[in-house]
From TrEMBL:
<dbReference type="Pfam" id="PF09240">
    <property type="entry name" value="IL6Ra-bind"/>
</dbReference>
<keyword id="KW-0675">Receptor</keyword>
<keyword id="KW-0472">Membrane</keyword>
<dbReference type="InterPro" id="IPR015321">
    <property type="entry name" value="TypeI_recpt_CBD"/>
</dbReference>
<feature type="domain" description="Type I cytokine receptor cytokine-binding">
    <location>
        <begin position="11"/>
        <end position="103"/>
    </location>
</feature>
<keyword id="KW-0732">Signal</keyword>
<keyword id="KW-1133">Transmembrane helix</keyword>
<dbReference type="GO" id="GO:0004896">
    <property type="term" value="F:cytokine receptor activity"/>
</dbReference>
<dbReference type="InterPro" id="IPR036116">
    <property type="entry name" value="FN3_sf"/>
</dbReference>
<protein>
    <submittedName>
        <fullName>CSF2R factor</fullName>
    </submittedName>
</protein>
<dbReference type="GO" id="GO:0009897">
    <property type="term" value="C:external side of plasma membrane"/>
</dbReference>
<keyword id="KW-0325">Glycoprotein</keyword>
<keyword id="KW-0812">Transmembrane</keyword>
<dbReference type="InterPro" id="IPR003532">
    <property type="entry name" value="Short_hematopoietin_rcpt_2_CS"/>
</dbReference>
<dbReference type="InterPro" id="IPR013783">
    <property type="entry name" value="Ig-like_fold"/>
</dbReference>
Amino acid sequence: VSGMPGTAIKNFSCVIYNVSLMNCTWSAGRDAPGDTQYFLYWKNSREEEETQCELYVKDENERHKGCQFQNVTIKDTTTYFMVNGSSKNSLIRFYDEYIKLYEIGKLTAPLNITANCTGEPRGCVIEWQEPLTSHMENKDCFQYEIDIKNK
């Protein structure tokens, strides 16, 4: 592996929210020189070309510390992420990771929740629609939990 030890990013993590938005964040390598700039590349499947982040999140020194993605499509395949860096003073080691996007998705809340309480033996009927998602074909995969607080 080329590049000085301790210069690669650390604490890399990504999360998908609101169906198709993805946020990835990282922190600078412990021994990375102050002028180090990092660049994230990713590819969603083997067939796709590797593309660079289009919207970087920057720290107070304009160093890239994250990336925001829009219109992310979750596929069954593993997604490849790679962050490399450049510096005038030293060679920066790259970091890479394979992530299954469906494992990092945060589901939205169920939609159109209604509660109908009649006071009859049936008590209350609570209904809802499943959360929005871009990738789950089988709606039977959802599990729900109802937490009823008596007022």
